[in-house]
Automatic annotation (TrEMBL):
<feature type="active site" description="Proton donor/acceptor">
    <location>
        <position position="146"/>
    </location>
</feature>
<feature type="binding site">
    <location>
        <begin position="206"/>
        <end position="210"/>
    </location>
    <ligand>
        <name>ATP</name>
    </ligand>
</feature>
<feature type="binding site">
    <location>
        <position position="8"/>
    </location>
    <ligand>
        <name>Mg(2+)</name>
    </ligand>
</feature>
<keyword id="KW-0963">Cytoplasm</keyword>
<comment type="subunit">
    <text>Homodimer.</text>
</comment>
<dbReference type="Pfam" id="PF00871">
    <property type="entry name" value="Acetate_kinase"/>
</dbReference>
<keyword id="KW-0067">ATP-binding</keyword>
<keyword id="KW-0808">Transferase</keyword>
<dbReference type="InterPro" id="IPR000890">
    <property type="entry name" value="Aliphatic_acid_kin_short-chain"/>
</dbReference>
<feature type="site" description="Transition state stabilizer">
    <location>
        <position position="178"/>
    </location>
</feature>
<dbReference type="GO" id="GO:0006085">
    <property type="term" value="P:acetyl-CoA biosynthetic process"/>
</dbReference>
<keyword id="KW-0460">Magnesium</keyword>
<keyword id="KW-0547">Nucleotide-binding</keyword>
<dbReference type="GO" id="GO:0000287">
    <property type="term" value="F:magnesium ion binding"/>
</dbReference>
<comment type="function">
    <text>Catalyzes the formation of acetyl phosphate from acetate and ATP. Can also catalyze the reverse reaction.</text>
</comment>
<comment type="pathway">
    <text>Metabolic intermediate biosynthesis; acetyl-CoA biosynthesis; acetyl-CoA from acetate: step 1/2.</text>
</comment>
<feature type="binding site">
    <location>
        <position position="15"/>
    </location>
    <ligand>
        <name>ATP</name>
    </ligand>
</feature>
Amino acid sequence: MKPIFLINAGSSSMKWQLIEMPSEHVVANGQVERLNLPGSIVKVNVRGKKTTETVEKLDEVTAIDRILERLTRLHIVESLNDIQAVGHRVVAGGTVFHASVELTPDRIEQLRELSELAPLHNPLEVKCIDLLAEKLPQVTQYAVFDSTYFADLPEKTAIYGIPYDWTKDFQIRRYGEHGISHRYLAQQAAEMLQKPLAETNVITMHLGSGASITAVQNGKPFDTSMGLTPVTGMLMGTRSGDVDPSLIPYLMKRLGFRTPEEVLLKLNQASGLLGVSGVSSDMRDLHAAAGDNERARLALDMFVNQAVKLVGAYYTEIGGADALVFAGGIGEKDEVIRAAIIERLGVLSIKMDATLNQAGATGDLGTTDSAARVLLIPTDEELAMAREVQALID
């Protein structure tokens, strides 16, 4: 069986996998970290043999070129024609796309028109789709959407306190992000808890350069931190998270911006950890600088505080949780941030085992007397995507 090629292009990284279906055998995988930043890191894992190299700087185009070159040079595939299908993670499907779809020229144009719902992601993802259509013209491409997981949020958490006619006329609502990841994490958590998903309450934290937190009640998403667009929610790598909407006209006057879009660009690309610290959008750089840089420490403190605020609110909102789940680049790899978040949640009698947290292995990180389990679950958006693509092929 020819494998499926999965591309997961984010705001600062690009992950990929080559998976044989339906066996779910991973032929190879890898990622490009620090996308569009100095010192891009290229990781490839083929049959357990891992390689890492650091290059000056890769953007989405050069990253895909490098990935495709590796597929043939390392004989992962003999020819790019050996790829059965390509699946793309697409953040925002809006109200246009309610399920995964095969990508046709008309649907690609529809994705272009949804760019304002995810300005850091959808244009990037469409660029990747266009590039792979050029590189692999005989291969069918599919889109798997983050937003579909949140399509059935209760209206009391999905809509804003604006005139209700605006909500309906202009499809203004909380679309969320990282839905592919949050769905996967909720399913995996239910298995670890040995409970039916429909009886499981969990709070899933996808913490990376893009960060979002979701409350899952009785197996279904009840609330999530991102909104109409991914700039909302908690502080992120370059995104501001929630701000007072009055900030936009205020900054237009103060900074001489002519359009709201100029302010939104700064909120998306020059804010968050980068904007507060003045150092970097990468958590590793902030930890390195925090010893003698007050703004780097402030950015770290704000990130932790906002995560705690959201988890605390969601814990109350869904009437308690069976488990809190850490995932994403920061959630999976940064034991300092995990410990800081759980320490602040001690008021809820949620407790971390320091030794387990330091080890950072998949599974339980909490103490035996913690009011909720604390789980580390590496997310696998690519596997979830492969299952969606295979279902469409079938």
